[in-house]
Structure formats: structure tokens, C-alpha cells
Amino acid sequence: MTNMLCESAFFGVVISLLAYELGMLLKKKFGFPIFNPLLISIAVVIVFLAVFDIDYQNYNDGAKYLSYLLTPATVCLAIPLYEQMEALKKNIKAILAGILSGVLTSLTVVLALALIFNLNHKMYVTLLPKSITTAIGMGVSEELGGAVTITVAVIIITGVLGNMLAETLCKLFHIDEPIAKGISIGSASHAIGTAKAMEMGDVEGAMSSLSIAVAGILTVVGASIYAMFI
To answer: Which stretch is the leader sequence (predicted)?
Structure first.
């Protein structure tokens, strides 16, 4: 039975969608940030593969079809930004300054932690692109000599944590301005955090979408400079 399921072209897609739907149901029922749908789905898939002794490659042969949707989904992030074009024009200087601050903060924190924990150069550059989208982060890590697979894991963890904690941190630090919320979320936790920003409001989602692209470009340049420090 297990072999028959694994041989199905859409086995990975079905398991992924069911796991995510379970996460959505738990989030709606309990409402706690820890019940993040993405986090739940990752845990469920890992447990499922381990319990039924299913090879990851067999799972990914089907699940990879979901990856094809990443590009059009990313392009769709331009829609809320277009709808908030007037707000972007009026606050362009503050927005760019906020994104730059977010990128520099991320890189500086990684540098500080690397010095505190005495990380070698490879592990240090592996962590530098933690706050940008996976596609760009993988390229940065590979170019600087980092461990790409660990970079991917760190990027996902950063995004999930941003998604879980974004709203709570905004309330804790009394950040009420929608533009500020969107910039902080997008520059710190890329696309996964942006999903939360869109739940918070249209302006938040639009600014977070913008931050993904700009922060990615700035990090490519900034990471190359910071890589020389260790």
C-alpha cells in the first residue's frame, strides 16, 4: 500500500496540502501563534515520512509540483503594492530607510552572534542571508562559500518565527503605523512573514511585499561586505 502511494505522481502534493489544512484547522480552533499552519505542516510531514519509512526523494517527486507555483505567487505580491502606490510615493524616503535599517540590523546581529559563539567563516556566511527569500538566499550562501542546505533551513525557520511573532511584537513595542509594520515584517522574515502582514492589512501586506525585493537586493551587496569581517 505504501509503495503504491509513493509511486503516485501527486503523493507529495496530497500529503503537503492535507498537512497544511490540518495546520489551518488548528490555527482557527485554538488561535495561538504556535499553531502556525506552515510549522504544523512541516512537523506533520516529517512525522509521516518517518513513521511510514518513506524516502524523502519519493515524497519530493510529487511535492515538487507545488514549487512551480512559487514564481507566479511571488509575482502576485506586486498587486497589493500597486494598489498602495500613492502611500509608497508619499513615504518613499522613510520606506527605503526602514528597509535599509532592517537589512543592516539582520547582518549585524549575525556578525555579533558569530563573534559570541566563535563561528567559523563557513557557518557565519551560511547565516548571513537568513532574512531574505530562499531563492536569493541560496545564491548568496553558495557564492560566499556557505552551507546552502543549512541556509535554506535557517531562512524557513526565520520566516516561520516572523509569521508567528510579528503581530505580538508590534503590539509589545507599540508599533501602530501600518507602513512601519509591513516594512519590519518583510525585511525581517521575507515571504512567510509577508503572509502574516497581509492578514494584518492591505498596507502592511503591500509594504512587506516591497521589502522582500529591496531587502533581497541590499542583502546581496551587504552580505558580500560583511563576509569579510570574519
So the answer is: none
